[in-house]
Design goal:
GO terms for molecular function: aldehyde-lyase activity; transferase activity. With 346 residues, this protein is α/β, with parallel strands linked by helices. 35% of the residues lie in helices and 18% in strands. The structure holds phosphoenolpyruvate and manganese (II) ion (MN).
């Protein structure tokens, strides 16, 4: 259920509605659009309508029941698309955003070199894993705190915003001191305690779709974060498990228009984990922008052959710069802006 406030609703009227909701045990979440405020109310809907008399309260325009299991995430709750501003990146806005960088942080030189080249090619957010959830316990597990220090340092030097994956409560607490955005990986999409903890933090969060998650399960995971108080959720489709073995996962591009219809949250595509192959990243990136994605999350390593993690799917900086030039043209064909690319013509 959402309570849509009138355009001229005063602060006092908004807080009175809030008070009525919370005093009856409902969760009340203020969602601020450009010109009006709606209050997402989570609780027993029939009681809300009949007993609270919200529709008669001053400043209230209408009360809209939401039938979907996800409420705050739903486009019914918030017709306008959400834009999440992180430093220079307006995620979900008119411009396509590029998030790029290595799968794992390996050294200061590696991250700096990737960051400088990615920035020149239009990236505004630098990615780098400090805690790596690996299938094998014998694989490289990440540099943890040392890696976060590197990411923060390079972020400062290049002016890029930063994102890293968190895998549990402790890593969330630690990473929150170093990065601008936290990421919940595919393997943790239904780690409900972690979702709630991220919900209580103030950091924007990239929520990746689980390997075998339906779109509804994914949106319910986003609802956990929002219901816990954090409205800055960015969805990221990174491929799902199917019977196909020629690609690492199967990129579900139909998720993009569906997500746009069902929710107001931004949606990114990660073509690197979706395909597992650097050869396929370019085509899928172009298709993602054409399909309406708000941005891309792409693994870029200064020397993919030497990468400690996900080398085969990582682009080298030249390939990323070349791709970025092509993406600029696709973006313009679908009326989206694109960041400035300063890399020389390749
Ligand atoms: C990653 O972004 O490095 C990662 C591990 O992604 P995913 O959770 O999609 O596998
Ligand atoms: Mn990776």
């Amino acid at each position: 259920m959402v309570v849509v406030m009138r355009l001229d609703a005063s602060e006092v009227q908004i807080s009175l509605v809030n008070e009525v909701l919370t005093s009856h045990g409902f969760g009340a979440h203020l969602i601020k659009g450009t010109n009006r405020i709606v209050i997402g109310a989570v609780g027993e809907e029939r009681q809300l309508l009949s007993e609270l008399g919200l529709e008669g309260m001053a400043g209230v325009e209408k009360v809209v029941p939401i039938m979907k299991p996800y409420k705050l995430v739903s486009r019914e709750a918030h017709a306008q698309s959400t834009v999440i501003q992180v430093k220079d990146a307006a995620i979900g806005g008119q411009d396509i955003i590029l998030i790029a960088g290595p799968c794992a942080i390996e050294s200061y030189d590696q991250v700096l070199s990737a960051a400088q080249r990615c920035r020149a090619a239009g990236a505004t957010v630098l990615r780098g894993g400090a805690y790596k959830p690996r299938t094998s316990p014998y694989s490289f597990q990440g540099m943890e705190k040392k890696g976060l220090e590197i990411l923060q340092q390079v972020g400062k030097e290049t002016g890029l915003a930063t994102v890293t994956e968190v895998i549990d409560y402790e890593s969330l607490q630690e990473a929150s001191n170093y990065v601008d955005i936290v990421q919940i990986g595919a393997r943790n999409m239904q780690n409900f305690r972690l979702l709630q903890a991220v919900g209580q933090s103030k950091k924007p969060v990239i929520l990746k779709r689980g390997l075998s998650a339906t779109i509804e399960e994914w949106l319910m995971a986003a609802e956990y974060i929002m219901a816990s108080g954090n409205l800055q959720v960015i969805l990221c489709e990174r491929g799902i498990r199917t019977f196909e073995t020629y690609t690492r996962n199967t990129l579900d591009l139909s998720a993009v228009p569906l997500i746009k219809e069902l929710t107001h949250l931004p949606i990114l595509i990660d073509p690197s984990h979706a395909t597992g192959s650097a050869r396929l990243v370019g085509s899928m990136s172009k298709a993602a922008i054409a399909a309406g994605a708000d941005g891309l999350l792409i693994e870029v390593h200064p020397n993919p052959c030497k990468a400690l993690c996900d080398g085969p799917q990582s682009l080298d900086p030249d390939a990323f710069a070349y791709l970025s030039k092509q993406l600029q043209r696709v973006a313009s064909a679908v009326d989206r802006g694109f960041p400035t690319v300063t890399t020389a013509e390749l």
